[in-house]
Amino acid sequence: MSDTRTAPAQNEKPKCVEAFRDRLLNERYLFTSRMLEAGAWVLDNKRIVALETLSVMARESQLTPSIFVRLAKAMGFDGFSDMQKLFRAPLHEAYPTSLSERISHIQGDEVVRDPADIGAMGQSFCRANSASLAHLGGRLGELPLNAAIDRIMAARTVHIIGIDRSFPVAAYFSYALRRARVQAIQISGTGSMALDQVAVMRPGDLLVSISFPPYAQTTLDITSAARAAGHDVIAITDSPVSPITEDAAEVLTVDDAELHGFRSLTAVMSLVQTLAISLAYRHREAGDLDLDQINA
């Protein structure tokens, strides 16, 4: 896909980070999927964007510097430096603090000085995981959890896709849903059969799409195919402007800590377990499930 899109003749640049976010959400047709990925990363790493160079951003995000420049121009800025000025305002005045900033701002950088010290390494991960759980716990009330559970309960079959680092989340969620008496199928993509697996979805089926940066292309393709076929999608991801959120019926965002290139799964696992437990309680209320025997 080309990284250029034709913008409207009058494309006034955003005056604040909130406006930047709203444009990504409401005018996403202006941007390619790579631009949306860059935009989501920018919103989750505003401190880096404000203080660092394009080369640092490229290294941290695993995206090319040019995609940030193209994003800036598509937004109406003269270039990246012009866009960077927007993020040099106090972060708390512009957009809710993301987990990556909380770890940096509140606890400081998690630096393991001696990688051979397994205890120190473990302590760093524990601190990062504690921060991710605290962040999730503080915003559970903002997430459309009940709406997501209603859709899962109403679905004929729930299909779940999660590739790469999201694979264990999808595997656990599909297992837990089945234990909670919900018909669930994990789309594993084994043998390059992912598109064939989504092709068997029937009316009334639901897709749960789980993806985090760098977003797996297979997940993007499956999500697009399911959406094109008219199936509802629940997106579990890191940002409202993640590539899998377009036209999603429900979006559940979760920030997990990332330490030395390893993404924690603590918060997202807690989120899907919360959904599974809630579904199990609903079935128990209907009298057809013994929670003590669920083994989920």
From TrEMBL:
Domain HTH rpiR-type, chain residue ranges per copy: 18-94
GO biological process, alphabetically ordered: carbohydrate derivative metabolic process
GO molecular function, one term: DNA binding
Location of the SIS domain: 148-286
Any Pfam family matching the protein: SIS
Domain of life from the UniProt record: Bacteria
Record's keyword annotation contains Lipid biosynthesis: no
Keywords, comma-separated and alphabetical: DNA-binding, Transcription, Transcription regulation
Transmembrane segments: none
Stated name of the protein: RpiR family transcriptional regulator
UniProt organism field: Roseinatronobacter monicus
